[in-house]
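My convention is simple: the sequence line spells out the residues, with the fold written below as integer tokens. I include a record here:
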Amino acid sequence: MALRATIYRCDLTVSDVDRHVYGQHALTLARHPSETEERMMVRLLAFAMHADAALAFGPGLSTEDEPDLILRDPTGVIDLWIDVGLPDEKAVRKACGRARQVVVLAYGARRVDAWWQGNSAALARHANLRVITLTGDETEALQRLAARAMALTCTVQDGRVWMGSAAQTLELAPQQVKAADAR
């Protein structure tokens, strides 16, 4: 018998001062049996950093060639494709061909630097790609906020992110290592 996804619920309040986006989101996250809580919380952070009423979680780890989060316009065109982790260059190239904007939120402690060094030259060609990195300490701290039922607040200002629960608040400093070209 196959293992089922573990369901997490999150009431997320977002105040993104940089984009002037404010809102409350009642989210349901399905954590695939092979997904860590750390990865799930990075997906939640990616949602908070790009919050939009139409932003949706993708089908998850069980489906290849699909984003972790996706935003479509009313005609079905993919406006935003978000991958978390350390995707291979071929997958990022495909995503850049399918979406107007692609964001990779890279994490994985020391592996992020090696991944970026190995892929930066090839990824530099994609004008619609942004790459943001998180440190291992940041994702470990983020994982400690995980609970089956969460009430979290997220504030984004000047490129910094504060994510908190009633018990604690974390300050994260995501680093943009590649910006998308201005259009």
